[in-house]
Amino acid sequence: MTEHFRAGDRVGDIVTRLPDAAKLFMAYNIDFCCGGSRSLSEAADEQGLNVREVLVSLEGLQKRQSVNNTGVTDWSQQSATRLTEYIVSTHHAFLKENLSRISELLFMILLVHSDRHPELYRVHELYNDLRKELEAHLVKEETILFPLIQLYEADADGGPDRDQLIEVMGNIEDEHVLAGDILKELREITDGYSPPEDGCGTFEISYRKLAELEENTFRHIHLENNVMFQKI
What is the pTM of this model? Predict the structure, then answer.
């Protein structure tokens, strides 16, 4: 029997229960990662959406997931240590593989199309800021945050002080907000990563990769802010 969603449910909790809701919320421009603590009703009001229509869409997603029986992992039932391993192997791996390539693509279209699309200068600037933030961020997570979480969960008495761990998590959350703000501006300036009519194939690939980066980063932030950190 499926569990029904309600307008008062936290946005982050909805994505935890129904991961496919991430794509739906992104289409609605609902922030489910840094803004995951808000209720669905509050998030819908901010975007001028009818919360009942959003609920109907969520119920449809849930029914399709039940029929397909996709076996999606419920991370709320997994240990924080298991979640750190998943984030490194999935989300960090994506960044390490794609950040440099996206930078090359954006530089190429800046050289070719900037005379007709001067907004590409701002896209290039924003992406460079984002790349620096994300690269430093994943290093901090892999060398500081995740080892602290693993030690704490393995032996709370002999591991790091909980206050120390919470302080580090707070710093990481601040970085999440900064990365999320940059991505939101990128989405706005690129019209939702929609290439212009006179854009070439490289233009289309560049914007598609930016959209993939946005989804990967938002899911990454969601798992940490709304699942992992709640366990601590």
Answer: 0.84
